[in-house]
Amino acid sequence: MIFKGQRTEDPGIGTSFERPVDRLMGPDGSFRVQRIGERGGLREGFVALVTMGTLRLVVTFLLGYVGMNLLFASLYMLLGVEHIGNADTGSLWGRWLSALGMSVQTLTTVGYGSLYPVGAAAWAIAAVEGVFGILGFSLVSAVIYARFARPKASMVYGEQALIAPFKDGWSLQVRVANRRSTLLIEVEARILLVMADVDDQGERLNYFNLPLQIDRVTFLPLSWTLVHPITPESPLAGLSMEDLRTRRAEFLVILKGTDEGYMGTVFARRSFRYDELAWGARFVRAFTVQDGTTRLDLGRLGEHQPVPAPERLPN
Q1: Which of 64, 220, 239, 290 is 20 to 30 A from 85 (CA-CA)?
Q2: Are residues 118 and 55 in the same domain?
Q3: For 69-115, what is each residue's pLDDT tens digit?
Q4: What string of DSSP letters covers 103-123?
Q5: Is the residue at 35 inside a domain?
Q6: What CATH number has the domain bearing residue 162?
Q7: Which SS3 state, helix, strand or coil, does residue 21 take?
Q8: Which of 80, 82, 84 is nearest to 104 (CA)?
């Protein structure tokens, strides 16, 4: 196997595996690794809450709130609702509502006064539940603050990478933009090409750094098309779409910049596999000028039109 381009060192992913890997990185930038035997803990749980999706976080908090109320309401039922002042003891449903109402008031530390503990055992349960309520809402506040205070990039990518015309030749192109209204400054970009090749040691992954026409911009108010010119030194030179499919080519896009709103460094990643590559296409401009103002349409970021392309990229 003759390698073109300058191979780079393994970035920490690995070079050989027991079986072929479908893809190294998901489209959302997360590495597709399942950890077995991972040790958990309070710190890991907090990190999971801070980093999980918003909908999942809301559902987790709601389930936790409902679960805690059901747990302590069950304790009040086991103790007997006669130990709750003004409780409805006339029916099973009334006792459950009284126990649940007592739990809700105690857990939220509202305490309307209509229901109150009677006796040492009921006061002990209420005291423990009050502590859990304070700690629980403190945790919610800490998670919300950490999510808002943590610098995080929110990038939009074109759905596909392109093999597109560039000057008198061809290039690999990826289009990105900032989803947020805050400005990204001093943005750096890098594209790694990963291909599976066979040598005297068997199948292994080889990593290539794809030099970009421009790998750094001062500001990113609009979209940015990352362009890797395919020169004779490029690892893509002389390859066809079938070659990329056979070698399970994957393009890893890494972005780094400073978010002006947070004044902190943010990172973003995205993966494009060989089947997410448009062979012979050109991006359509995603921004227009109306009434003297530039308007960027993020919904058109990946819009492109086909162009005739050679079956095999020139050497």
Answers
A1: 64
A2: yes
A3: 999 999 999 999 999 999 999 999 999 999 999 999 999 988 888 89
A4: HHHHHTT---SSSEE-SHHHH
A5: no
A6: 2.60.40.1400
A7: coil
A8: 84
Residues 119 and 193 in one domain: no
Give the single-character DSSP code of 242: H
Phi and psi (nearest 5°) for 157? -120, 155
H or E, element range at 189: strand 184-199
pLDDT in tens, 16-44: 766 677 778 877 778 777 667 666 667 78
Q: Coil, strand, or helix at residue 293?
A: strand
Domain closes at, from 104, 128, 149:
149
Find out whether 191 and 174 touch, Cβ atoms under 8 Å: yes
Q: What pTM did the predictor assign?
A: 0.75
Dig out the tokens for 76 from the structure: 């009040």
Q: How far apart are CA 89 and CA 172, in angstroms?
A: 74
Range of the domain at 105: 42-149
Note whether 255 and 268 are within 8 A (CB).
yes
Number of domains in the chain: 2
Phi, psi of 99 (to 5 degrees): -65, -40
- CA dihedral for 41, 45, 51, 52, sign (positive or negative): positive
